[in-house]
TrEMBL record:
Organism lineage string: Eukaryota, Viridiplantae, Streptophyta, Embryophyta, Tracheophyta
Domain Apple: 1-65
Keywords of this entry: Kinase, Lectin, Receptor, Transferase
Species for this entry: Trifolium pratense
GO molecular function: carbohydrate binding; kinase activity
Any Pfam family: PAN_2
Protein name, UniProt field: G-type lectin S-receptor-like serine/threonine-protein kinase
Tagged with keyword Ion transport: no
Highest taxon of source: Eukaryota
Amino acid sequence: MVAVDREENCTSKCLETCPPCQAYSYVPPLTQRTLNPSTCWIWTQNLTTVKENYTDGDDHRRLFVLVDKSDI
């Protein structure tokens, strides 16, 4: 988990990660007035079980999975 200020910075942190980033998820602060920073989760190991359309309460977190072009 990494503190970031914008979703673009979460993407950058993922791409800079070694071993290679497999996926990332960005969650903004709960409110604009909170002192808590945004959160960036980064996965560096294989994702073995991913659920489609998973939501956690009302925040609707998104999971971005990186794949090789040859796998598409």
